[in-house]
Amino acid sequence: MQPYRLIDIGINLAHDSYDHDRAEVVQRALNAGVERMVVTGSTLESAVRAISICRQWPGLMRATAGIHPHHAREFPDEDLPRLQQLLQDPMVTSAGECGLDYFRDFSPRGDQRRALTGQLELAARLGKPVFLHQRDAHRDFMAIMSDYLPRLPKAVVHCFTGSGPELDEYLDAGLFVGITGWVCDERRGLGVRALVPRIPLARLMIETDGPYLMPRNVKPKPSHRRNEPMYLQQVFEVICQARSEDAQQIADATTRNALAFFDLPLGAIGVGR
Hints:
With 273 residues, this protein is an alpha/beta fold. It is 37% helix and 16% strand.
């Protein structure tokens, strides 16, 4: 059976674990039906690399540029002009990954909030959609987002792992929701799997978040733990199991959503080195 045509809206393809076989990773994605990818920039340096990667495959990829909350302590306000420059690159169609993470607390919470507000201000000024991260920080996250959502064109909460009330608040605020391989986990993913049917098709997108979150339903089980876009079909499979719509309808809807949100190329795929 032919794989469904899908779009991976969150792949950390600039991660050094892909340095030795990035072209092969891209080809395996194409072979598996993943026709477009959004390459995540989570620091200034990784955003530069993400842009460079997208320039190698301009018919297939676009990038985000932002500062992950884990790195907020390393991002002084003096670096905002550099981030603005990256956001204005033609390969960058979304701001982020940005947000709050009180689960890991790798950066002080004050720095996380400062970095998030600075990035949201830039995104609003430049008219960029936003690729968002939130973990164990919902109240502070939504308090900040509520000030900026009226000025932002669109925003997606990537790698949703939250509760029903959190999902309801995101949807009420007009946010898109990204689902990763977390939903494939037979233990941790059960809560998210139960909530997947509540996400309107017009707001749903899918992602691997590779090299992280290898879907646990990949068979045969790989000898490694590095996730990559070829495994997006496993995430899609579980989403289809959780929802009542036809699989093709879900594939078409998530693809339309991603194409429009990230302003991805519409023409024939051009894979080049």
